[in-house]
Design a protein that fits this description.
The protein is an alpha/beta fold. It has a single domain, classed as Rossmann fold (3-Layer(aba) Sandwich), CATH 3.40.50.150. The relative contact order is 0.18. Helix 2 links the parallel strand 5 and strand 6. The chain has six helices and eight strands. Helix content is about 30%, strand content about 25%. An eight-stranded mixed sheet has the order 1-7-8-6-5-2-3-4. The longest helix has 14 residues.
Length: about 220
């Protein structure tokens, strides 16, 4: 289910701070008023927004410590925040469908969500027959963090689009991110993978969406 309003940009992130910088630069117009950062870690975003910031997480230095898999509801009233930010968090949760509904409930206007494309992240190790896939695998000791869902770009897109059928929200922006590559590499890839869906499943590393609550 590929939509005509899907945009693509070429950027990659090696650190969490780079992803937050991209958020502020690309989606800063939505970051106003009362802002909730879901999965805030060390709350780096606090210093980069002008609004009233609240961060929640299970670890790090949140304003409110919350285990999203153990609370039936987020500890906020309906429509508490002008913008709710949830970047690369849902894939870590068994109850991601329920948590998405909570993001909608507590948002007054905007919800910004990003999801990784696990197929793209797994492609190279599988093709090489060696290496490991971040947040997956079987480490010798229990990991502090891991992904609970393994999905492609097209599955992530379908999930996000389907939320408009469940909740009174509309998709204001959809953005697919690829790692920067030369025009020649991108052209060769498109020739090899002429199906748009196959290309996006192989090479898009994350999908970003901005939802707006309906009036």
């Amino acid at each position: 289910m590929i939509t005509p309003n899907l945009k693509r940009e070429f950027v990659s992130f090696s650190e969490r701070e780079e992803r937050l910088s991209f958020l502020v630069e690309r989606f800063g117009k939505y970051l106003f008023g009362h802002i909730l950062d879901v999965g805030c870690d060390t709350a780096v975003l606090r210093a980069r927004v002008a609004g009233l910031y609240v961060g929640i997480d299970i670890r790090g230095i949140p304003d409110v410590r919350v285990d999203l898999e153990k609370v039936p509801f987020l500890p906020f009233k309906d429509a508490s925040f002008d913008c709710v930010v949830c970047l690369d968090v849902l894939e870590h949760l068994d109850n991601l469908h329920h948590v998405f509904g909570e993001l909608v409930r507590i948002s007054r206007r905007f919800i910004i969500v990003s999801l990784p494309n696990n197929w793209a992240n797994a492609r190279r190790p599988i093709e090489r027959g060696r290496g490991h896939i971040g947040h997956y695998g079987l480490p010798p000791e229990p990991p502090l963090d891991r992904h609970k869902w393994f999905f492609s770009f097209s599955e992530a897109l379908t999930f996000l689009q389907s939320q408009m059928l469940k909740y009174s929200v509309s998709l204001k922006e959809l953005l697919a991110l690829e790692k920067p590559r030369s025009w020649l590499v991108r052209m060769m890839r498109r020739l090899r993978w002429s199906s748009k869906e196959a290309y996006l499943n192989r090479y898009v590393h994350s999908l970003w969406a901005v939802f707006e609550k309906d009036e």
